[in-house]
Amino acid sequence: MIQFDPNSNKPKYQQLIDGIVNAIDQNELGRGEQLPSINSVANEFGMARMTVTKAYDELRERGLITSHHGKGFYVASTDTRSSMHVFILMDSMTPYKEILLDSILANLGQKVSHALFFHYHDIKIFETLINDNLGKFNHYIVLPHFNKSVAKILEKIPKEKLLVLDIDVKEFGQDYSILYQNFEKNIYSGLTECLDKIKKYQSLNLVLSSKSFQYTPQGIIKGFTSFCEKYSITHDIISDLDEEYDLSKNHAYIVFREFDLIKMINWCTKNHWKFGQEIGVLSYDDTPLKEIISEGISVISNDFSLMGKRAAEMILTKEKGRFSNNYYFIDRKSI
């Protein structure tokens, strides 16, 4: 199965990798089959254990083999086309995160495989998922959606393999790869673009939610508050848009969850109120649904398609540094 050419300029660890990949392609090794131990390969071919370990580690990072403590190494996948195996850790799956994920995978290309995990804003799950997957992937894409520092946890991942996405980690320097949303600046700038429309309402209200996996960065609240104070806009922060809360005519609302948006639509339909006239609504983060419901919902949004493309580029080119992703405002007449 494994053969070495002593006259080859190719390093022994690469010959070992190629031999195992070829054995998988030739159906000599199937999914779940055990590989020779590191010691047995080293002894049989007169190789250093570190050389064999390096080859096995690379195969594991590509997702082709896996290790079981005390039992050895096994074939995990027969898809040898994958040149890179990527760990992706998100907070939860939402329509706009789906746009982001699709863009990342499309721009990474067909030779890249991935495994997707969710932490649901639980820092213990977040840390466990990272700890359990160290050394198993070529690259790690992590969306650390917490209003507390997770730098110590992320430092466990080699910086050359880590891309911090969507959220800035201020403790990290320019030797890390970070692509983030500037929440405070984006919402402030987006609201400024529709200032004249907002002024026709008696107040502007930010609708949050404490009863779901929705995460609200502190930058959103800071940017919203700064805007309202700058332009003397009467404002409030609503913790939950529950059944007991009554929407008010001639007031405007910023919503995050599509569930809350549907509640608003139902409420306004019952009261025969029209968005952009009797009541204003502005949604954060665009989705295809918001283009069509209620004749279109105005949005301030991160450009998730662009973010996915830039994330893939940073991984493929090993680009380092801290970059803010673009946002946009679309006026669909609901504000």
Structure, described:
The chain is an alpha/beta fold and 335 residues long. The protein folds into three domains: 12-75, Winged helix-like DNA-binding domain superfamily/Winged helix DNA-binding domain (Arc Repressor Mutant, subunit A, Orthogonal Bundle), CATH 1.10.10.10; 84-182 and 304-327, Rossmann fold, CATH 3.40.50; 184-301, Response regulator (Rossmann fold, 3-Layer(aba) Sandwich), CATH 3.40.50.2300. It has twelve helices and 14 strands. It has helices spanning 12-25, 38-45, 49-61, 95-108, 123-132, 151-154, 183-193, 195-198, 218-230, 258-271, 288-292, 304-317; strands spanning 65-68, 72-75, 84-90, 112-118, 139-142, 162-166, 177-180, 204-207, 235-238, 252-255, 280-284, 298-302, 321-324, 327-330. The chain has a six-stranded parallel sheet, with helices on both faces. It has a six-stranded mixed sheet with strand order 9-8-10-11-12-14, sandwiched between helices. The chain has a two-stranded antiparallel sheet with strand order 1-2. The longest helix has 14 residues, at 12-25. The chain is elongated and about 80 Å long. The mean pLDDT is 91.
